[in-house]
């Protein structure tokens, strides 16, 4: 019975996926998608493997996601691979995770298909990891393709604090007094110093694993974003799940905070 049902799914799912893709309204799709790649460790536990196995399975799903984004005309993708809180994980697990991140970033850069942009507090990362991220950005700087923000050592509160610090340092170097700065500072001034400066804010934020919270992801930029929470752990996230997220986004009436 199980084999029969599995066979039916193999036949029907491609047709269902194709129908989903055909019916997406091309004029109502997101240009910037943020993805919280959550659930690698829980996926690993479910299959009786260690955390590193889960992280490698998750890493293998990144290139397919970027291809799906290209197919529908997404222009910017932000991938949250490691938070500032994750830097407090046990030393052995963290070292393995950083090694996997370095490998996947090197692989993405080698494809010369996407323009990689590290976002996060690189000064909190081991020197080798920070160097690999900067190297990948340099290697893909001239690539005319999808912009991929690789968020490693990233935290939304830290980003806002860094943006304000950068803004203060810039104006201090120009001789602007605190009183003068207080008179002119506004939302746009701070936005110009975010890690994602110059990019559109995310239209859609997807979080896998069933968790329904931001956890500090793109706190500033997601003020008007639409959110989609998927039950699948990240390694199990499929193209059909991505298309469902796009369908849900396209069906919503965006109110921009109203």
**Average pLDDT reading:** 93
Give me the Rg, rounded: 20 Å
List SSEs in N-to-C order.
HEHHHEHEHEHHHEEH
Termini separation comes to 50 Å
Which strand order spans the largest sheet, edge to edge or round the barrel? 3-4-2-1-5-6
Q: In the CATH classification, which architecture of the domain at 29-155 and 202-251 applies?
A: 3-Layer(aba) Sandwich
Helical segment count: 10
Question: Structural class from helices and strands?
Answer: alpha/beta
Q: Low-confidence parts, pLDDT < 50 over ≥5 residues? A: none
The percentage of residues in β strands lies in: 5-15%
CATH topology of the domain at 29-155 and 202-251: Undecaprenyl pyrophosphate synthetase
Largest beta-sheet characterization: 6 strands, parallel
Number of DSSP-assigned strands = 6
* CATH C-level category of the domain at 29-155 and 202-251: Alpha Beta
Question: CATH homologous superfamily of the domain at 29-155 and 202-251, by name?
Answer: Decaprenyl diphosphate synthase-like
Helix fraction by DSSP (H/I, runs of at least 4): 40-55%
Shape: globular
Give a summary of the structure in a few sentences.
The chain has 258 residues and is an alpha/beta fold. The protein is built from 10 helices and 6 strands; from the N terminus they run αβαααβαβαβαααββα. The chain has a domain of 177 residues: Decaprenyl diphosphate synthase-like (Undecaprenyl pyrophosphate synthetase).
